[in-house]
## 1
Amino acid sequence: MKSKVLAGLGAVVVTAAALTGCSSGGEAAAASCTNEIKQPDATQVSVWAWYPAFEDVVDLFNETHDEVQVCWTNAGQGNDEYTKFSTAVESGSGAPDVIMLESEVLSSFSIRDALVDLSEYGADEVKGDYTEGAWKDVSSGDAVYAIPVDGGPMGMLYRKDILDKYGITPPTTWAEFADAARKLKDAGAPGVLADFPPNGRAYTQALFAQSGSVPFTYDSANPTDIGIDVNDQGSKDVLSYWQDLTDKGLVAVDEAFTADYNTMLVDGTYAIYVAAAWGPGYLQGLEGTDENAQWRAAPVPQWDTGNPVQINWGGSTFAVTSQAKDKEASATVAKEIFGTEEAWKIGIEKAALFPLWKPILESDYFANLEYPFFGGQQINKEVFLPAAAGYSGSTFSPFQNYAYDQLQQEVTAVVVDKKKDAGQALDDLQATLEKYAKDQGFTLE
């Protein structure tokens, strides 16, 4: 049965690679180095990763490790890298030894036997260095398929100057958020309170999770069994909430991460940006920021302030691929490349990463950092550290990208095309994913 599942998923991946025109970088892609090798006689471990300022982290690792050296290549970001990796998995060659993967796609590759179970290579030795939620995101049963790096606990970034101008208090609940959106529109403001991007995908799912959604149950110990529950009442309530706001024109429905969206993030079109902990760094890196803007950060709004639920928008990891030539050395890289305070200070100060490594996550240095972009506010201490501490982890499906694609289609049908209501859209999503799972050889729990 597992072979049927793997064959089905492999066919889908090959089709996706053909449609995008991507191909594996082959052995050359895995072996070419962007960085300098400090110890030529040491074991070399090839790494694919797209972290900002990563070359500095690689140089630090190579300077402090005589036995192992990192040979780093940026093979593309997100799906661009995943497509190349998928093609390498299908061909049986061309993959790097270590690969940066977002936690949500780990099960998509582990089910295809593309990743090494790091519990056999000392993962338990570093488990205590990570939060419970971060470790759950890289684990399935007793297996550990990656080492956590950075996370996306969520908060609310807002334009203090805009809210002050219209007499709006930063909302602490979603009811207050809706009231603020109405107040801003009634006042004739040129922009809107926020954007609800139809291509939010992981963002949308995080909002659903805050209302209790557990869309998938899956354990790699039983790789052909999966539970799917994407049309739960909590998800329907959340999508209905946003449908009401978009129908009334109280929030925008612009696709995220386009050039226009980036402009509107910083020119005052949106007064609030509900963001992950990497959002502050993303904002600061955009051009055209309003010089008079006063940005601040606050906790993400809650449905029930008496029972707050913290949520997470993405997180990245280092996994060892099954094609790794020296799995022991590769595991050392995955565990140790972001395993020092010095490495993490590079990641925080040059790349605006939010660490999941507890020695720096729980340090006074990180908590007390003041951010000039946010008026000197200690946004980690006040917003993102509490959010990270309250996050208990998620379970993703072994076809998560497909599930996200279908979610995006249904959300678009609700808030852009106005063809469905929230309940019908999520019922349709449930039916689509159940059919897909069965067609791929899964058994529904």
## 2
Amino acid sequence: MKRWMSPLLCLGILSGCSQQDSRQADTQDADNPANPAASEAKALSLPPIPEPMDAEAIMKIWAMDHDETGFMEEISDFVERPGNWKGKRRVGSDQNNLVQSEVFSFSSKFVNRRFMTWEFLGEGVPPGYSVMTYLPESDSYYWWELRKGGVVNEYKGNRREDGGITWKSFLTPGGDGSSVQLTFIPGPDGLVMKDVFQVMKDGELLAHGEGEAHWMSGPGMEPLSAEEIRELLAEPHDPNWEVPEIASLILNPGEWKRVDKIRVRKEEEPLEAAKSLLEGAKALLKLGEADDQPQAGEQEEMERILFLTLKYVRGRFTVYTVRDSEGEKAFSGVTTYDSRANLFLDYSIDTEGVLQQRAVGVPDAGKGEVRWKSLPHEDHDRLLTSVGTVSPDRKKSSFKVKGKENGRLMAVIEGQMEWLGELPKEE
């Protein structure tokens, strides 16, 4: 079977019905005028939609700066977060034969109050560009996809009850008569997006694909490097905290004790005590599937005790070092807050100073809660999600972590943290 190239936002290489066939279909559907976008734009107090929306217009829109000021809520409320995303997809002849996999990434931004625009990067294909907007008069979405040679495919989309959008190809000049249906389904907090697509021709399914993309960073956001993390770790504690909106969720500086209870499915190989959360999670996730509720004879439990030293740096970073029960350093990290995205960002490094994990957290100050998820790592397919709570005095914390690999639940970690005392005085 030939390799299906199926980028998240650039499906034209798979699809295509001839321009003539598409326009004939339009005359049979009163809800699909040949150029609804241009006609509806005239009645709006929004920037006009370029006519034609050709390669030059799409690239001009892509070149604009990201700006959420006055942006259409009909788009911002029903699509993924703008920024940089990374994903994987499985593709095959049908949903039971997804024999090929591919990785991809894309960047998205809001521009000119009404357009969302993307740059897609996939394996072995040139960059692709797309533009999408919302059409109030028909309560629908319109999407232009720039393909190789300046060809522009067009899609129409409608919202789903689950908050996603289902797209159907409308115009695919130069195609082979096939059509595409694509569904985007946002995950919790806009940090994950699933997609399902099908390519059809004459009622026959040609291809089926299922993918998942993860938000990595916002527009203009520069993640901390391992070197920057090491620099922050070396700085002295500064008691002045300068981000009041999330101050109630920031743990009190000082010495902490952490106790983890970990459940995994029982396996033949012995379960060794983990020296750190990161390395321990990696070991645990290899052991097999675990359920939230332990089942007799199927799961094994272990307890791990860790000690943390936590300080504030530059008024906006919490910096921590973690040691095991023997006093050996396990890993270190930095947590900060991005007010534009309303997200916590956490970075951890190992004892050699190598960046091991990045995670994002959604704060809920009213509940005293942060919902965390790790970001994809190039060396493995494991993801950690967790919910952590902070006591009103910020001297206690509890959390529950779920470790997944390829979508399967593999381990559950429940923990408690307690403040032991002030930071030791510096020499």
## 3
Amino acid sequence: MANKPDDRRFADVEFDSYISDGAEVHGSYRGKANLLIAGVIQGDLEVDGTVMVATPAAVNGDVSGINVIVSGRVEGDVRARKVAEVRRKAVIKGSVVAREVFIAVGAQVGGDIIAHGKRGVTSFRERRPAPAGEPGPKQP
């Protein structure tokens, strides 16, 4: 993935709301602040900002936001008004729809991938440092 303005924005995102690892939420979630999920959500998410489904998070429902980053598990559709980034540990059992879709080598998507912008779908090798306890990407 080339260094473009969206990359810098994702690196600089400040998450105003957080669902921690070990927390479980039942029901739909709607909000206007950027949301980082590390726990479990049983229901749909609709955020007017950036949503990150981190490892080891799980969402059993649809996820939508301006930008959506998935490195955990989603059983539902992912919809982003701008960019959807599917990282290498992500497992999505549903479709991904966005203006631009970035999919890391190793990610799993079990539905359609629809990119309706000029750039379309881009695959990439993740080069970010792996979180503690997670093996890093293999180097060629």
